[in-house]
């Protein structure tokens, strides 16, 4: 399948090759950097209007690029959201794209076309740096953490990778570079399990006195393996020298991203830079601690902004800014308490991570999937604020348009070419977006329909309104962006119209 697909794309290349070769040698093809934050809400970046936080580096990009006010992820959690972003396919078409364990098998299959494949097949150097959370290897729990972990990111288009396998709160707490654990002592092999604890290893639940850095929130789990005074999800043993230091994660991944840019400055590159900020456990570097006045969550936001600043500085310094397309967005909406007693709730004050939107991470309401979204490209993009409806599922087809290549019909078929909209040349975007968080929702920008579901209406754990309801829900976003008034009974025709869009998409 993949071979067939490469050949297909290869035809496109050979037709265009004289142009492409020339363009490549003079570095005319734009570099592309995709900055994907973790759990940063619409209101968490000061460019989107909240006065309670200052993210100057992001704001600078926003003021020089297109800032979107109606941009969506496909899902309200990381794994399904990232799956859709990278493959151009709705994660809800599959049943195995939910929040992945740290020992999950690769969710994106090698035969699937990814954004990274697209760039790689068109002469780019490609890299993924930061949080991964899309599984590794081909069988859950069977990865060789002490050797070459395969299949891995090189099988889905990334020439270089420096990643955290899952999340900061899931074992194994090590970096994996080009499919090998970094800094592993061969005499201290790593063992990972999501089923059974390792004898002799203290756990958060049995040894709370060892939780010197962060304690889990009550009833949130996160009480298994202890690494750096923080208990996590999952069990691990060994690999002591390879363990990351939580406060250095942003520095480590930002440095690797900068190195990748520097070493590819003479050829086109694609960098997928997925930060750990501001996912839990939030343990920012001491230089950010106390700086936001909002506790660890706010400090991690400042750390994210710093990472963005370092990328920008590098591009400026190398003279690459002019011809580098930067997209900055987040994988899902915000959450305040996501599992650790880090004072985020107590110190939130009047800050509204969700902006004007209802819900948050995990929610069918808008704040679950309506995320910050900026496009910056000095050479081609003029500063603007766009109300166009956009979805991350369209990145693949839009990048294909940027590269002027056609996609095979059986790949990325949920992805639409929205390049003109993304570059601010067109004021309208998609006809509708589909959002998923247990239920499926569809919005055309004016109206939003949430399909009935039996899930809970509210999560006590995270203090989130999840938006599940056994009845149809319809909101008139144009005048009720906060989804306060369910008008399904008043507008049955709108319900039917939106429902039929969902039915149409589900049949594809
Ligand atoms: C949840 C975790 C949460 C976070 C989330 C994944 C519990 C109670 N909560 O299951 O802490 O890790 O998974 O977040 O375990 S995501 O942004 O990577 O999707
Ligand atoms: Ca996330």
Describe the overall structure:
- With 508 residues, this protein is α/β, with parallel strands linked by helices.
- It has 2 domains: 2-68 and 75-185 and 256-422, Alkaline Phosphatase, subunit A (3-Layer(aba) Sandwich); 438-506, Arylsulfatase, C-terminal domain (2-Layer Sandwich), CATH 3.30.1120.10.
- The chain is built from 9 helices and 20 strands.
- It has helices at 2-25, 56-64, 78-87, 115-120, 249-263, 295-317, 395-403, 419-422, 492-507; strands at residues 31-37, 66-72, 125-131, 160-164, 175-177, 180-181, 191-193, 226-227, 230-231, 235-237, 269-274, 324-330, 373-376, 384-391, 433-437, 439-443, 447-450, 458-459, 464-465, 473-476.
- The strands form 5 sheets. The protein has a 10-stranded mixed beta sheet. It has a 4-stranded antiparallel beta sheet with strand order 15-16-17-20, with helices on one face. The chain has a two-stranded antiparallel sheet with strand order 7-10.
- Strand 18 (458-459) and strand 19 form a beta hairpin.
- Helix 5 runs parallel beside helix 6.
- The longest helix has 24 residues, at 2-25.
- It is globular and about 65 Å long.
- The chain starts with a helix and ends with a helix.
- The model is unreliable at 1-26 (pLDDT under 50).
